[in-house]
Design goal:
2 domains, 20 helices
Length: 479
């Protein structure tokens, strides 16, 4: 079900109206469960395509139920292994092609995020953080919530349960405006910015992956442009989707967690991952990085080794995150590149603190030159690392690297980093110099102006969608 199709808007309107037809919690939960089922069914051509998903959910529920009966570490480990093996088999990872595959097509959309929700429940039940028994219908509503089914955000069951049909939403003018404004902003990002970047990216990228007569400098320029366009596409596609589902959640009494917090304003790679896909990075930090680091520090209890153990934990965590993103070897490279970026950043912080001291290092990080240089290097590194996402097959990836060479990659990195640093500095200077008069600010926040602004967004969405004649797809549902 495409987010821009009339069918989706009809589905959404039906769900919102049905949800508010009664204040009964049981009724509202039925509406949400039925909405999940209808949303999943929209991806199916045959009923057999949903059977593997049902089996995966059933296995997850059995593992959770077993942990409620006995909070055993061995039982948790066995359940995690069983869930991961089933996930790997269903996702058809290229590393395990020898395992075979099911002899019919089936649904894999949503499987990656369902995995996180099941593992989170199992771990929290084992640790005692989650004592509330979860029934099969509540388990289905949480794991297959149609708002978060395709790509999150990743939500804890405890937060979901507090709102599961219980929230009383008064759809007054302010609430409806807030919801529609957020949804419209999401569609502007999704339909206009992301789709435009995607068209330009699709036009230019073949020049990199196919033989061409480009000179070295032109090749680097095209690579910098294509990599930057993909980053723009990915961010506005993904953050636009988040705006849409968070806005819809407001109408259904669900406060979904934010997934982005101005990531391109980050002053370091570690800060970037605190702002980009935040629910994913928080999940990995809480359920993998922290326990792994604690285990390593217990195994090697030397304060001098703490930073280096953190580096090892970064590589393992981001390596797993990379494998989660895709099923080919290139995604392992992506994870290792993310781990390398985080590790280098951490070691740099440790070295500077030891060399300069905390006070002088803090002063250095606040200087204008350092801030924009750090922002440029952070974004430049991330932009080039994202190549793994748009060149997911290893032969194409190695071919591109061979064409560029080490010199080409370095030149492109410097170009992207410098261009972003200068653009960020220029925008900040312009914003700091602009002062909106109080009288204009009052007009800007008036009801008429806000409604005109919302109407303008909607007209732009319709115009661009009609012009492009193609509904954009959501990029993360492929991961």
């Amino acid at each position: 079900m495409s987010l821009t199709s009339p069918l989706f808007f009809a589905f959404l309107a039906t769900v919102v109206v049905a949800y508010h037809a009664s204040e009964s919690v049981a009724y509202r939960r039925f509406v949400l469960g039925a909405a999940n089922a209808v949303f999943i069914a929209s991806y199916l051509n045959d009923v057999t395509q949903v059977l593997p998903l049902i089996a995966f959910l059933a296995l997850g529920y059995v593992c959770v139920s077993a942990l409620y009966l006995r909070q055993s570490g061995l039982l948790l480990a066995s359940g995690v292994v069983a869930i991961l093996c089933c996930y790997i088999f269903l996702k058809r990872f290229s590393f395990f092609e020898g395992l075979g595959q099911l002899p019919f097509p089936y649904l894999t959309v949503g499987l990656s995020y369902i995995l996180f929700r099941i593992l989170h429940i199992m771990i929290d039940v084992r640790s005692g953080d989650m004592t509330e028994r979860i029934g099969p219908l509540a388990f289905f509503r949480f794991t297959c919530n149609f708002l978060c089914f395709v790509s999150g955000p990743i939500q804890r069951y405890q937060d979901f349960s507090a709102m599961d049909g219980r929230a009383v939403v008064q759809l007054d003018a302010s609430v409806v405006y807030a919801a529609f404004s957020r949804i419209a902003t999401g569609y502007v990002k999704f339909v206009i910015v992301a789709a435009t970047a995607d068209y330009a990216f699709t036009f230019l990228s073949p020049h990199l992956l196919q033989p061409s007569g480009l000179t070295f400098l032109k090749l680097c320029a095209v690579y910098a442009t294509v990599a930057s366009l993909y980053t723009v596409y990915l961010y506005f596609n993904f953050s636009g989707y988040m705006d849409i589902v968070i806005g819809i959640g407001i109408l259904l009494g669900q406060t979904l967690p934010e997934n982005f917090d101005r990531p391109f304003s980050a002053r370091s790679f570690l800060e970037f991952w605190q702002r980009w896909h935040m629910t994913l990075s928080q999940w990995f930090k809480f359920y993998l990085f922290n326990p792994l680091l604690m285990f390593l520090m217990t195994w090697l209890p030397s304060p001098a080794l703490t930073s280096y153990l953190g580096v090892l934990a970064f590589f393992i965590t981001f390596g797993v995150m990379g494998v989660w993103h895709g099923t080919t070897a290139v995604f392992v490279i992506y994870g290792l590149l993310m781990g390398a970026g985080a590790s280098i950043n951490k070691l740099w912080q440790v070295a500077c603190t030891e060399r300069l001291g905390k006070k002088r290092y803090r002063a250095l990080t606040e200087s204008t030159t350092y801030v924009y240089l750090a922002r440029g290097l952070t974004v430049g590194y991330f932009v080039l690392a994202l190549t793994c996402l748009w060149v997911p097959e290893l032969p194409q990836f190695t071919h591109l690297l061979a064409r560029l060479g080490v010199a080409g990659v370095l030149v492109t990195f410097v170009v992207v980093a410098a261009a972003f640093a200068m653009a960020a500095l220029s925008l900040d200077l312009i914003q700091n110099r602009i002062r909106i008069p109080v009288s204009l600010s009052a007009i800007q926040n008036g009801e008429i102006t806000k409604n005109l602004h919302l109407a303008g967004k909607m007209m732009a969405i319709v115009a661009v969608a009609t012009l492009l004649h193609k509904a954009p797809d959501f990029v993360y549902k492929a991961f």
